[in-house]
Design brief:
The chain is of the alpha+beta class. The chain has 8 helices and 10 strands.
Length: 287
């Protein structure tokens, strides 16, 4: 009986172990099935997301977006308008001798200059200006009648007057200096060109900042510095542009014979103007 009990006990143990092993196997299989199901679901979600992303990329325009032809033509037309001769036209003002775009100036009769007495230079500066002029100009100081035609002023002299004289670049009468480049004639009326700042100052009964009456007097350009070539101007200039726009114009005014394009490069270097002035002109040995 003892042997039988031992045998039954071992059988039960084996059955229990087998049951436990089967239960563990069942759980592992169930876990694997759940894991595979989750992995499959994840892959499906990834595929769907990639498909949606691809559709978005196909719908979304490329970056940067290509410029529309209409926009190009509009910008080109605006550029041509801003580079037209009428927009780029410049004029020199009669009071301050500053050159600015013509669109920013005022044209008024000389007789209508507000508070013109504020433009009178001091006696000291007036004497200095007279002494700087050539003897022929000093002797030409007379009461004069202004005659302006095509920006050229002609003086009809009557009698000597110490407060009236003429120079190549300016005209002075009663100690009031007006620059000739800012004077012209329109319908037989003597006109002058004023900038907004000078006109505003005179209107407010103030002396214009850059007028000769405010001792802002530089005098005529020396003969040595007149009619310089472009390279000569660049040598003595304090500032140089690093790019420029060149307008091409056919001498025959025909688009069929005109040059259509011009391309080049520009190289700039720092320049020491005082050293250049000290070394020029070069000696024959240095050249």
């Amino acid at each position: 009986s003892s042997n039988l009990e031992n045998q039954v006990s071992r059988t039960n143990e084996l059955e229990e172990k087998r049951r436990i092993r089967l239960e563990q196997q069942r759980k592992r299989n169930q876990t694997n099935r759940v894991k595979k199901k989750l992995e499959k679901q994840i892959h499906e979600n990834i595929d769907i997301e990639q498909e949606n992303t691809g559709m978005q990329f196909s719908i979304r325009p490329s970056w940067p977006e290509p410029i529309l032809r209409d926009l190009k033509e509009t910008r080109l037309q605006q550029f041509l308008e801003q580079m037209s001769m009428s927009v780029l036209a410049e004029a020199t003002h009669a009071v301050c001798n500053v050159r600015t775009p013509a669109k920013d100036l005022k044209k008024i009769p000389v007789s209508k200059i507000p508070n013109i007495h504020l433009l009178k230079v001091s006696e000291k500066l007036n004497d200095l200006i007279i002494n700087m002029q050539s003897p022929s100009l000093q002797h030409s100081r007379r009461d004069a009648e202004i005659s302006i035609n095509n920006n050229n002023i002609k003086i009809t002299e009557h009698a000597k007057s110490p407060s009236t004289f003429d120079s190549p670049s300016f005209y002075c009468e009663n100690n009031v200096i007006l620059y000739k480049s800012g004077l012209f004639q329109q319908n037989k009326v003597d006109m002058c060109i004023l900038c907004q700042k000078c006109h505003g100052a005179l209107y407010k009964e103030s002396i214009p900042k850059f007028s000769a009456a405010n001792n802002m007097w530089l005098g005529d350009i020396p003969a040595e510095l007149q009619e310089l070539t472009i390279p000569e101007e660049k040598l003595i200039s304090l500032y140089r542009h690093n790019s420029c726009i060149i307008k091409l114009l056919s001498p025959f005014y025909s688009t069929t014979t005109a040059q259509t394009a011009l391309k080049g490069n520009c190289i700039t270097f720092l320049q020491n103007v005082p050293n250049i002035v000290n070394c020029l002109p070069l000696t024959l040995e240095a050249m």
